[in-house]
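Two folds, back to back.
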Amino acid sequence: MSIGKMRHRIILQSVTAVINDNGFETKQPQVFATVWADVSNLHGREFYQAQAVQAENTVKFTIRYLPGIDASMHILFQGKTYNITSIDNIKYRNRYLEIKALEVESSG
C-alpha cells in the first residue's frame, strides 16, 4: 500500500470506567491514538457479505500497524462514531491493520 493513500485523520478511542463525584461508575471515552488512515466503503464481495448481516454503514479503515487495538474501541471520523467489528493484521507482517467498523446511528 502506498503511504500517500493514508490521507484521512481518525481518532481511536477506548472506553474506560471512571468513578464520578457521586461515587457511581460511568464509562467515558479516552483517546487511544490519532492516526492517518486510508478510508473506503465496502464494495464487491465484501459489500454483499456485509449486506447479508444488514451492516449497511460498514467502512474499511487501513492504518499502519499499532499494537493494543481491540474490538471494544471506537473510531471517530468526520464527526461520526464507528464501532469496530473486525481487525485484520494484513498477512501477519505487522505493517498495516485493516479495520472494519460499523457506523453508530445517532439517536435523537
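---
second:
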Amino acid sequence: RATAQAAYRELIQKFPDTDKGLLVAINPGVSEVEGSAQTAQSIEEAPPLANFPNPFNPSTTIQFKVTNPGKVSLKVYDVLGREVATLVNEHKEAGLHAVQWDAGSLPSGMYFYRLEANGKSYVQKMLLVR
C-alpha cells in the first residue's frame, strides 16, 4: 500500500491536472460518478468508501468518509439495479462513519452500494457468498 501511495503522489506531482483520471486508474474499486475529483491529500487520509469483509456472509461493515457536514445517502442495489436497502439517509457530520449491513435474507451474488454526499456520488461493489 505504501508503494502504491508513493507512486500515486509521484504521478500527481507530474500531472497535477489529471487527478480524476488517476483516481480511477489507481483505485478502480472507488469510482466517482458525479462531481469534481478528490484531492490526493483526501485519498491518502482515508478512502471515501470501503466495506469489510468482502466477500462476506451474511453481514459486512461499510465505512465511509464525509468531508463536510450535510445530507448523506447510502443505498445498496442488486445487479439489476433494484434498491435492496437504504442504510443511511440523514444529516452526518464530517468524519469517518461506519454502518453494518446484514444481508441474511438476500441470495448470494454481487451487490453495489452508492454513497451520495457533498454533491458527489461514489459506487463500490461487494460480494455476498453463502
